[in-house]
Every structure is written in C-alpha cells, then in structure tokens.
Design brief:
about 350 residues; alpha+beta; Aminopeptidase; 5-stranded antiparallel beta sheet; 18 strands; Acyl_CoA_acyltransferase; BioF2-like_GNAT_dom
Length: about 350
C-alpha cells in the first residue's frame, strides 16, 4: 500500500496558498472487501458530479457476483477515513496479455471512475499511479460519457491513450409537465394516440408502477422480453448469469429509489414491461419487453410515452435511450450523444 502527497494550489485573493491532500490508495482484489466498501461507496457516489446509476454499488456488486470474469483489481483512494476515489477494475487474462477493464463492462451503458468533487484531477492521478502498479498489457476504459471523471486520468508515465467514439446513446431533451405534447414529434404523438385507442378496443388498459415488487416485475419482464426476442437472438436476459445479475441488482436499485419499473395490462393480461432508472435530472430507458400477440397495440410505445411523462413530472431534463441506434428512438425525437473509448498499452507506460 503506497502513500502519496498531492499538492494542488488554491487561490486566495492576491496571495497563493496551498492545500496538501494526503491520499492513501489500495488495490482491492477480494470480493468480500469489495462489497464491504458499499457504505462509503454510496457516499462517494452520491457526491460525485459525474456518477450515473451504472457506477453505484447496487449495480456493480451484483455484476461482480454474477460474472467475475477475471481477477478483481479495484482501486480505492482514501483521504483519512473518507473514500474519495473508486475505480472498480478487474484483470482479464488473454493470450495477448492481461487487460485492465472496468467492472460492469458490457451490461453497463456508461462506465467511469468515481472522484470526490473539487479534487477530481488529483484523485484521478492517484488512480493512474496505482493502476500502473498492476501488470496489464492494455488498459481499456470504454463507454465514458461526456464529462466523465475518467477523462481526467493522467500520469507522467502515461502517454495520452487512444480516444475514439465508442457508442451512440440517443437522448431526448424534456421539460415541463406536458413533455409529451411539447417535446415529442407530432408523428410520434399521433402514433401513440392510435396505440392507446387500439389497446382500449382490446379491453381495459392500465399502467402500473411495479418497482415496489421487484421479483414479480422481473418475472413479467423475463417472460415478455423472451417472447419479444424469441427467434431473434433471444435477448440479453437469455443468459442465466445476466438474469441472476438483474435479479440481485433490481431490488437494491429499487431500495435506493433509482429503479423505474412499469407494467401495462389489457384487462387481466400483462402485455408489456418497462425497466429504467431515474437519477438527478436524467431518466434512463434500460430494457423492455412486450407480448408479440399485442404488437398492433404497441405496448412498448405506450410504456415509453408513460415513462417520458413520469420522468418529466419528476423533474428530469433528459430521457436517455442508452446505447444503440435503433430507429424507434429517433422517432421520439432523440439525438445521439456519443460515449468515448480510451485505451492505453503497456508500451506507453514504460
């Protein structure tokens, strides 16, 4: 375990004074110790300026339990008893050499490190210094969103890694209590009205919040997502490890008020499910499913319209459709925002 002195200068009128931050960094390679970070981790996550739901312990701890695809190598940075930085990484052994990757990769639409506000650059430098003590041939940070703390990672021994566009995340700006009338294109509003009318012709339509009962909701989501993707790759939940991950994560997310789960029913039949998140002023549409027998009633569209309206009512300013350039997202008026991918090779760090 190495101690580091970092001394960023802070201005005070004409006179310059210095505030010395003494950081202690460590590599956590034990799953129990990783999970024991949760209370301090939640505090850091709540204060981090760039955090999304994909960086919280309710998401990443279940991910590691379900997948654990390599050797855990999480980097924690402390100032006294305060956790001021966290970079959940792991080492994946490949024939070409070990790669340092973020915990949560693949199923997380945004990946980043967490840094305490006001000292992001110093904490990111401490993370880089500790990462250089790990034996990796490549260090990859994919899916960094705009403004990510990970962009601040720098070190004298690290040349600037390759930075490229990685994935498009269509995002819809929303505002006001009547977001559907103001923010959604007219064509989509007409399609949504037709969907509601078609559903009402089939029976009594009801949209129900379901995050209070995560297990029952997820049972419906598994059934409907599987039905939607049957014969077309079967969907992400066909992987037993992915299902187990979500079954662990969803109750934890719901307990923290982050989950937004909705079901739509026609008469007594649940025909659509929507799984998303809400954090600060942003809503995230993560996953859904619907009964193909009710495709003409567009239960997926009905649920997205409802989710947008509810997100606006809760004060969201953006509705994020997350990764993927599926045509339906642009029909709602969403515009691409790109994540970035940064890669360092060990040769750069020599």
């Amino acid at each position: 375990m190495r101690w580091q002195d970092l001394a960023p200068a802070v201005g005070a009128s004409r006179r310059r004074s210095e505030c010395v931050f003494v950081f202690r960094s460590e590599i956590i390679d034990d799953a129990a110790a990783f999970e024991a970070l949760a209370p301090r981790w939640w505090e850091l996550w709540a204060h981090s300026r760039t955090a999304t739901p994909f960086q919280c312990p309710a998401w990443l701890i279940p991910w590691w339990r379900a997948f654990a695809p390599g050797e855990l190598a999480a980097i924690a940075v402390w100032r006294g008893d305060d956790l001021v930085g966290l970079a959940p990484f792991y080492l994946e052994n490949k024939s070409s050499g070990p790669r340092l990757l973020p915990v949560g990769i693949s199923l997380s639409d945004y990946l980043d490190v967490l840094c305490s506000p006001g000292i992001e650059a110093a904490v990111a430098a401490a993370i880089a210094d500790r990462a250089l003590a790990i034996e990796w041939s490549q260090w990859i940070l994919p899916d960094l969103p705009a403004g990510a703390a990970g962009f601040a990672i720098t070190h004298p021994a690290l040349e600037a890694g390759e930075l490229i566009d990685h994935a498009a995340c269509p995002v819809l700006p929303i505002a006001g209590d009547d977001a559907l009338a103001v923010c959604i294109p007219a064509r989509r509003r007409r399609q949504l009205r037709r969907a509601h009318k078609a559903a009402c012709r089939r029976g009594c339509v009801s949209i129900m919040p379901a995050h209070a009962d995560p297990k029952a909701f997820f049972d419906h989501l598994i059934r409907l997502h599987g039905a939607r993707w049957a014969g077309h790759g079967d969907g992400v939940l066909a992987d037993p490890a992915a299902e187990e991950f979500h079954r662990q994560a969803l109750p934890l997310l719901a307990a923290q008020g982050l989950a937004r789960c909705w079901l739509v029913a026609i008469d007594d039949a649940v025909v659509g499910a929507y799984y998303g998140f809400h954090h600060r002023h942003r809503a995230y549409a993560y996953l859904g499913g619907f009964d193909p027998a009710h495709a003409e009633e567009s239960p997926g569209a009905i649920l997205i319209g409802h989710a947008i309206a509810e997100a606006a009512r809760e004060g969201a300013r953006e509705f994020d459709f997350l990764r993927g350039q599926e045509t339906y997202k642009y029909g709602w008026g969403a515009v691409d925002q790109w994540t970035m991918r940064r890669v360092w090779t060990r040769g750069m760090a020599q």
